[in-house]
Amino acid sequence: MTDRRTFLRNASALLPALWVAPACVRGRLTPAAESTADLVIVGGGLGGCAAALAALQRGLRVIMTEETDWIGGQLTQQAVPPDENAWIESIGGTRSYLALRDAIRSYYRTQTPLTAAARANPRLNPGNGWVSRLCCEPRVSLGVLEAQFAPYVASGQLRLLLQHVARQVQVQGDRILGVEVRSLLDGERRWLTAPFYADATELGDLLPMSGTEYVTGAESRAMTGEPHAKDVAEPDNVQAFTVCFAMEHRDGEDHVGDRPAAYETWRNTMVQVPGSDTPTRLLSFDDPGSARLGFNPVARTGYWSYRRIIDRTQFVPGTHASDVTIVNWGQNDYSFGSLIDVSPQEAAQHVSRAKELGVSLLYWLQTECPRPDGGAGWRGLRLRHDVMGTTDGFAKYPYIRESRRIRARFTVCEQHVTLDARLRETGASREAVTAAPFADSVGIGHYSMDLHLTTRGDRGQYGATLPFQIPLGALLPERMENVLPVCKNIGVTHLTNGCYRLHPIEWNIGESAGHLVAYCLAQRTTPHAVHAQAAHIEALQRQLITAGVPLAWPHPLPK
Asked: pTM of whole model > 0.85?
């Protein structure tokens, strides 16, 4: 530890260092306490958790920071039940991700009063939501992740800094030398150093701070060759984010509060949505897809069961007075401003307005939502603050669909993964065609190219994709040598982000990055050098396979 610290200090004295603060201010770091590890992970998102666990299991010392008081990203602090591929119960995820899912089910079986039938179900879905085979409470996922980290925290191998944010980064040439983080509780600053750094923030915050080249928004067709890319690049055109909330329904009770101040504004907002040639009201089920789905908390159908995390019928009678469902719908998607590369004040304003939208949606559901009996409103709906662990009832952090993305050694494009593009490129039959094969694969994934309404008003897309691989080149910045993206900030495009951003894929990205760091430290090399030599790639892939990371999909796939 001492040798590494001395080396870094001596190196920084030999060459002038570049400091890039959040506002791109250059200067000298003021004194702060120092902590050293083998890997510093900035952000405790789902990919960051996977990277940390992989590195810890390989014997590395890890420091992980997190802006909120919950690790786990989209699975916990953002309250998004896991969106997964059709084969996830057996394949389509790493061994550790499948173990995470098993541990969540085990928690419910051992710690909650399930009915005998629910407890005996090997594929228990606590909420019986149909967006996922494992719709569960954020707190349960958090508890399982914390239990996995507990032995490493106790031994000191992992230092977990909750409610800490990165404030400035020291860069020398193509390497990060250190990151200063600040506690949001008491303002204490800490200087973190390591040979390697990972960006597990939801918006790719470490990229601009470190001078790592990145892209945002929609690329042009000339940039990517993608059939559905824009004629001209639109860096400010990003997908909507959502501030999720949980609610229950108490039939016969009245939980309607005061009319929200911004209600009329949101009630009159019109948006263009898929499947409709004319704009529809945002606070409505008027668009064709929503009209088919419907919403009925008494019959427990439609949007009510979509992201339901507690199905009360699976628990001993009296345990839950109501189902609990997560509201992460098109109706509370916020596409009216971006959180990327804007001032903190503007970002806070957008999050505040997104919550105003959520409050207005709840009020509309309580008072104006059409009912099957011809009436309006479900007055028994109410927020479940406890589910989110917040005073206002909203998730601790917005659900971010699209972040900054590194300019990567290799960028995954639409033509690599979509069915139609691969059919045209390969000439293979529909039954035989596969996604583009990557010799440097470090994992697999599958999800449709799911793009929500954007800040420039693009209506959503939902393109069919083929089961695909995760290329190592997409995890490597063009230039920076010791920083890795471990979530939605990898080398994908505005379009392919739509299929690479889901839970098991993000976990796989982080896990593979953790193993890559361990490999580089053992071999005394860099990620770029690994990518440059077939022998290195093959050695890394053998380690990944041993760790339970599948590198290719089986053919044929199970029905």
From this structure: yes
